[in-house]
Amino acid sequence: MSYPYQIKSLAQYHDDYKKSAEDPEAFWGDVASNFYWRKKWDKVLDWNFTEPKIEWFKGGKLNITENCIDRHLATMADKPAIIWEPNNPEERVRVVTYARLHKRVCQVAQMLVNNGVKKGDRVCIYMGMVPELAYAILGCARIGAIHSVIFGGFSAQSIADRLYDAQAEFIITCDGAFRGGKDIPLKSVIDDALIGNRTVKRVIVYTRTRTPVSMIKGRDVWWEDEMDYAETQVEKDGKVFFPAEEMDAEDPLFILYTSGSTGKPKGVVHTIGGYMVWTAYTFVNVFQYQPGDVHFCTADIGWITGHSYIVYGPLAAGATSMMFEGIPSWPDAGRFWEIVQKHKVNCIYTAPTAIRSLMSYGTAPVEGKDLSSLKVLGTVGEPINEEAWHWYDENIGKKACPIVDTWWQTETGGTLISNLAGVTPGIPSWASLPMPGVQPLLVDERGHEITEKDEHGHLKGNLCIKAPWPGILRTTWGDHERCRTNYFATYPGLYFTGDGALKDEGGNYRITGRVDDVLNISGHRIGTAEVENAINMHSGVVESAVVGYPHDIKGQGIYAFVIYNGHHGDENLRRQDISLTVSKIIGPIAKPDKIQFVTGLPKTRSGKIMRRILRKIAEGEIANLGDTTTLLDPGVVDEIKDGKL
Fold first, then answer.
1. Other C-beta atoms within 10 Å of 368: how many?
2. Residue ranges making up the domain that contains 226
3. How many domains does the chain have?
4. Does any domain span residue 260?
5. Assigned domain for 582 exists
6. pLDDT 10s digits, 86-110
7. For 39-86, what is each residue's pLDDT tens digit?
8. What is the DSSP annotation of 201-256?
């Protein structure tokens, strides 16, 4: 297999980029023609950013699972589609060929139909990193049901909020999940989330940890029993068949919830045609994937990275995708490198947080590991700092592997800015050049294009995109106005990323971090309002304000300033109580790293909290707080400064 749309040289990159900007319809029509369509589109692109209304491959008919599985069967039935490495290195590895994947996805599709799932229904998936999670996602897509995967670390309350917003009627979960040395009781968390729920009709439970679970008659069924029955329906005379539902290119494929600047999670909606084309195109080009390579994306499928670069992108390209159940530091900090050696991994794609964490163990866990199969290293989730970049380059890539520093978001579907491995230049801690089809623009607070360079010769501003790419979100589930106000209203006519960036004379971009009220914790975005709402649920808390601050491992930590009712009791115990409250309401990932108790917050006379001042205090920039005379009570700032943790 070759990829006619793969960029092979810097000259071709510039040529393709120019074509994609000048005639996007012709360019993306050519790329899309490499996939299987039951009916070709009537129009490649129709859009405006005002409503917003974005349609790619309008009128085209397809099913994404036929592109990810069926079309590969004639030539690659016995090739590994997914290699699964379990949490426990002593447990058996599972190699899932394209033929086996086809059979399992057909079974899941039949199982879903047997349980009443129809095209357009929402299916919530809350599972550990097992192959059955991929089968569940693809089984939904095969029948046209909309999947919504929820990361296994979210709390019952977070799940309940998402179930309610999606009006999901079906759940697929596991009895439990293994993650490092922990057993996570997924089914019991789902049971808690379903207290008071009136929409969920069926919960399908896969057996993984053999944790005792409560099974409610009429609602809960075992995955194994349902799959055994489905197998008798889809397999006849040694042949497997379940017809894939014909879908429109603009039908929703999945909802993925992301934190926003309000407390309510927002369901980002991606549609089938454009998302498929974009994930496959960016996968093949960013990683310079070659047929037969083993691609190891270490993300959890509960996040967009896992959707795009473990499941859809690699499978649409006929690739072999590694899936890992565990964590990088268990049973020891050499686990990633053992996996690379064992499976002869060619590309590893991980988060800067993981790299910084592994750096803290020194180079001993890497010593003696054969990493010679590696051709490409990648990073995702947050900008990588130079120290971590060089450690990765020297100790893992042995200075022989390009590092692709990919910048993108849940809302973008796939990579927007990145060097292409070995094809376009990589610059430490710079995401570098935009992908073909991506037209970035740096603007000031008023939306005017930045034209003046700083003392280093860089343009610096808020990062926007001028025109749609195929993977762009279409809406936020059930609330299109929220999509418009979040992404398209700040700067009319532009998609606003929420990030700041630098641009050098060569057209390379460096992401400088969030400019809105969203934190980037270990590569995952969490809204400050969501964390504040959770803190404020604690009975002793009067008010709180949350900001980010530099964190050696996570990139950004959560610093909470809390007004507490009364001062009785142990202060550290109060901190633990507040952290536990946040854990219960959102999940452990959102627990504050620092909680400072204060008697007041810096507010304007209109009552707005000046987070800019709190951010500078948290970052240690106490000498440069700017003008505080406009505050209702300037004296509160001195008290906060004196009490800084």
1. 9
2. 98-248
3. 2
4. no
5. yes
6. 999 999 999 999 999 999 999 999 9
7. 999 999 999 999 999 999 999 999 999 999 999 999 999 999 999 999
8. -EEEEE-SS-------TTTEEEHHHHHHHHHHHHEETTEE--PPPPEETTSEEEEE
